[in-house]
């Protein structure tokens, strides 16, 4: 971690891991272009010069630096006061208290911890998201990649959503880039073969009797003809320039992955942290364009996540570890309808941490499998501490700060039940780890 305390608040963040080529994502400040450094704010309040440099590196990555500057291969230990200053600068005060309590309960020196925490409270909260790094040349960029017309395979798994799939295909018919095929892996009951007749598309429908999302995507990738794979969902809507914006971004940044953004309300603004180009710390298989060559290096999707959660997160992490450039693309957006029937809702759960039964595993075992496999048991436990208490409240209240507090309080009273749930999940994830991954080769 560039700042050690970051591990408490985002214990399973991609950028906390060193990549297979022994580099981190954070650029060295002295290697950044002058025009980038001019848009960063040096914080003289840090005690250590190294902390000041790390803070600038953090800013650069978070504000959207995408370039070939040399990155760090290791990080030095920083003064305690600087660690708390970093927390207060970028995170809500509640989370700063949370970290302090974790440190105190871990038998750290209380005088040093409280003193450093109190010094950090004087730090002004950063508004870095309001001044992202901009790429004005993008607007008028003439993409040679688009002009070369690479063939794209759009892959859509579907399950009992013909009503919504109809609109999906209509949107694809309206795309201003037309050199693509559509491969639909249909797991619906009953299968309606006549639905796929009459479309003005290079359309191939594959019926799959087994209801398995990652099997469907792997199967379609293996049968695809495209140079690029565009993964999409069956309950989404997109604008006519959706494909061309993905391609343009790949070309502009010389990237291997373009991760589009999702909004859940028509006409809604793109969330602030997704409103500008930046190196992506996630991969959403409902809206992402990838160079097909990636699968030869990383393998396909891990079927240990079948009927569970975070299979796309695991694949995205593999993409990051292999140092493929994954750009968060605000222009390739989709409206994700998140309809209440069909799709993943019929195969598992939308939520990784909320259970439907009192003594069901919490979180879903595949989540702990992912955390433990790549981040280790310690980071997995930190992730449980941060995510399980808020999951006590219903999904619809997950952004309500008051209800999150209520959930944290309730978790104290429900501790015996939660302990059983987490124990079950941990045990089942251990079984997955023992079995090993189920990543197919391409």
Automatic annotation (TrEMBL):
| TM stretches of this protein | 402-423
SUPFAM superfamilies named in the record: Nucleotide-diphospho-sugar transferases
InterPro entries per record: Glyco_trans_2-like, Glycosyltransf_2, Nucleotide-diphossugar_trans
**Keyword annotations of the record:** Membrane, Transmembrane, Transmembrane helix
Identify the residues that the record assigns to the Glycosyltransferase 2-like domain, covering every copy: 153-274
Task: Kindly provide the name given to this protein in its UniProt entry.
Answer: Glycosyltransferase 2-like domain-containing protein
- Species annotation: Mesonia mobilis
Give the organism's phylogenetic lineage: Bacteria, Pseudomonadati, Bacteroidota, Flavobacteriia, Flavobacteriales
């Amino acid at each position: 971690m560039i700042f050690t305390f970051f591990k408490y608040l985002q214990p399973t963040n991609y950028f906390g891991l060193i990549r297979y080529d022994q580099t981190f994502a954070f650029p060295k400040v002295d290697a950044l272009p002058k025009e980038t450094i001019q848009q960063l704010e040096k914080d003289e309040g840090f005690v250590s010069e190294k902390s000041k440099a790390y803070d600038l590196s953090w800013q650069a990555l978070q504000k959207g630096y995408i370039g070939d500057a040399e990155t760090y291969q290791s990080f030095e230990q920083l003064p305690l006061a600087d660690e708390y200053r970093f927390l207060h600068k970028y995170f809500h005060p509640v989370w700063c208290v949370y970290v302090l309590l974790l440190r105190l309960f871990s038998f750290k020196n209380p005088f040093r911890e409280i003193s450093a925490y109190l010094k950090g409270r004087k730090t002004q909260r950063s508004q870095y998201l309001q001044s992202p790094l901009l790429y004005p040349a993008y607007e008028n960029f003439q993409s040679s990649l688009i002009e070369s017309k690479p063939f794209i395979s759009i892959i859509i798994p579907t399950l009992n959503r013909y009503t919504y799939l109809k609109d999906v295909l209509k949107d694809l018919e309206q795309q201003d880039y037309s050199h693509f095929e559509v491969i639909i892996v249909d797991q619906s009951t009953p299968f309606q073969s006549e639905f796929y007749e009459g479309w003005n598309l290079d359309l191939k429908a594959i019926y799959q009797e087994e209801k398995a999302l990652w099997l469907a995507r792997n199967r379609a990738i293996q049968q695809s003809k495209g140079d690029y794979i565009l993964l999409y969902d069956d309950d989404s809507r997109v604008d006519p320039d959706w494909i061309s914006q993905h391609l343009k971004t790949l070309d502009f940044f010389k990237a291997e992955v373009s991760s589009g953004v999702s909004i859940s309300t028509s006409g809604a603004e793109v969330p602030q942290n997704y409103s500008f180009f930046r190196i992506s710390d996630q991969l959403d298989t409902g809206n992402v364009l990838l160079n097909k060559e990636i699968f030869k290096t990383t393998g396909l999707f891990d079927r240990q996540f079948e009927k569970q959660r975070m299979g796309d997160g695991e694949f995205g992490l593999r993409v990051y570890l292999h140092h493929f450039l994954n750009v968060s693309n605000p222009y390739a957006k989709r409206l994700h309808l998140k309809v209440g029937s069909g799709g993943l809702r019929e195969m598992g759960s939308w939520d990784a941490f909320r259970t439907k039964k009192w003594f069901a595993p919490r979180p879903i075992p595949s989540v702990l499998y992912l955390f433990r496999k790549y981040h280790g048991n310690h980071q997995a436990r930190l992730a449980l501490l941060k995510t399980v208490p808020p999951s006590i409240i219903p999904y619809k209240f997950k952004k309500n700060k008051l209800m999150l507090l209520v959930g944290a309080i309730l978790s104290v009273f429900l501790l015996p039940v939660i302990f059983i749930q987490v124990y079950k999940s941990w045990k089942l994830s251990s079984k997955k780890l023992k079995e090993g991954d189920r990543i197919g080769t391409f």
